[in-house]
Design goal:
The chain is an alpha+beta fold. The chain has 2 domains: 142 residues, Methyltransferase, Cobalt-precorrin-4 Transmethylase, Domain 2; 252 residues, no CATH class. Helices cover 30% and strands 25% of the residues. The chain is built from 9 helices and 20 strands. The strands form 5 sheets. The protein has a 7-stranded antiparallel sheet with strand order 12-13-14-15-9-18-20, with helices on both faces. Strands 1, 2, 3, 4 and 5 form a 5-stranded mixed sheet that branches. Helix 6 runs antiparallel to helix 8. The radius of gyration is 25 Å and the shape is elongated. The relative contact order is 0.10.
Length: 420
């Protein structure tokens, strides 16, 4: 809970329950009775290594376990700014951890618990003391932070590189599995060698530095079958999001499912994959064709290819909420990578619905082949700023079509569908 609950929702009861477990401070956890003079060293060491949590206001015993009752640290206004100022004045490049302040009264005295949640940094190594010293976190209680040697710095960078390679590997495996489905995976529905239509959208989110499975495949399948993970699809293309028309399929590390929408001789696959290391990937065809060749599913040369922005808005919005629910269940924390790809969009144009949404009569056409958007954010930013993330991504997508969709239209559509 200390590691995964939204930091602004932490309460004194949560700290009390955590301390009652008697968890020793160590590689990813540090207790401090009062504001430490070496806070910059502790924070930078966590960021340089594997991340961690500092809890100020908790006294520890000789074994490194928290002492009860909780005494707290002296409360003063702007404790969060105090932490930020220490970072900005002492750590280079700066780190921006999650900071939670839990104020309470103890015998009419104002007290506080300060929780500082530090993610493993993609900008490491971080130095202190005028950029002279780089610290790493250790398991040695007598020397929990030590100056990193050149070999250790190289090891840290290699370790980060391996996590990044693992992240890209599980993503590429998912993409290859999707490609295989287009090739011959839809035979049970009578389809094979389906050409990928224009406007293929692939949305994914994963930990920036995955390390090990966060959930077993069996548990993951049960989670995918749990209706608490699903959301009503207000766009109307699917009954729910995710939408499974079959029992989810397990692989060695993932649970996958797909749904086919077949009409007018066309086949539009929807694909979902949830990975035990935290990857969630969704594929949908956002491009639409005005004409179809019913015999072989190949588009006519003169077909008009269009894209509906409210389709992207709705399913990107739903994707982000399902991702948050997924991460709440499996206990992810730290930095996240969101990736949106729109393939084969050259000459794809914005579809103008019969409404007041699109006020311009101009035709908006894409003059690029592929669109890729990547965002690196903290879990806290993801939870607190989902709407801003959605707006920013839609703005980038619309600019690829020489068009400014605008925040007001996004909000109007979301309000109409009771999402705001």
């Amino acid at each position: 809970m200390i590691f995964t609950k939204p930091i602004n929702e932490l309460k004194l009861e949560d700290i009390q329950a955590f301390c009652e477990k008697g968890i020793k401070e160590g590689f990813n956890l540090d207790y401090k009775e009062a504001f430490p003079k070496d806070l910059a060293k502790i924070i930078s060491a966590f960021a340089n290594t594997s991340g961690g949590v500092v809890i100020i206001g908790i006294e520890e015993d000789d074994e490194g376990k928290p002492k009860l009752p909780i005494k707290g640290a002296s409360f003063e206004r702007g404790l969060d700014l105090k932490v930020i100022n220490i970072i900005l004045e002492n750590i280079s490049p700066p780190i921006f951890p999650e900071i939670g302040i839990i104020a309470f009264n103890d015998n009419d005295e104002e007290k506080a618990i300060i929780v500082i949640r530090v993610q493993q940094s993609h900008e490491a190594p971080h130095a202190i003391d005028n950029k002279k010293l780089i610290y790493i976190r250790t398991d040695n209680r007598n020397k929990q932070e030590e100056i990193a040697t050149l070999e250790q710095i190289e090891w840290l960078l290699n370790k980060r590189k391996k996590s990044e390679e693992l992240r890209e590997q599980i993503y590429e495996i998912a993409i290859k599995r999707l490609q295989s489905l287009y090739k011959n995976g839809f035979l049970e529905e009578g389809y094979k060698d389906i050409p990928v239509p224009k406007g293929q959208g692939i949305i994914s989110i994963s930990p920036l530095f995955p390390k090990e499975p966060l959930i077993g495949v069996g548990e993951l399948k049960n989670l995918c079958n749990d209706s608490k993970l699903w959301i009503h699809d207000y766009f109307g293309a699917l009954g729910s999001f995710p939408s499974f028309n079959r029992e989810p399929i397990t692989t060695q590390q993932s649970v996958v499912s797909y749904k086919l929408s077949v009409r007018d001789g066309g086949c539009r696959p929807y694909y979902y994959e949830f990975n035990t290391l935290g990857l969630f990937l969704f594929q949908e065809i956002f491009g639409w064709e005005s004409e179809k060749n019913d015999s072989d599913l190949k588009p006519e040369k003169n077909a008009e290819h269009t894209i509906w922005f409210y389709n992207i808005i709705a399913h990107l919005d739903l994707f982000l909420e399902v991702a948050e629910r997924f991460y709440d269940k499996i206990g992810i924390w730290g930095l996240l990578k969101i990736k949106f790809i729109l393939n084969d969009i050259f000459k794809l144009q914005v579809k103008k619905p019969q409404s007041e949404w699109f006020w311009s009569d101009n035709v908006h056409i894409s003059h690029q082949d592929t669109l890729e958007i990547i965002k690196i954010i903290t879990l806290q930013e993801f939870k607190e700023n989902r709407l801003s993330i959605l707006k920013d991504m839609i703005k980038e997508i619309s600019l690829a079509f020489n068009y400014d969709f605008g925040d007001e239209r996004i909000e109007k559509y979301l309000k109409e569908n009771h999402r705001l």
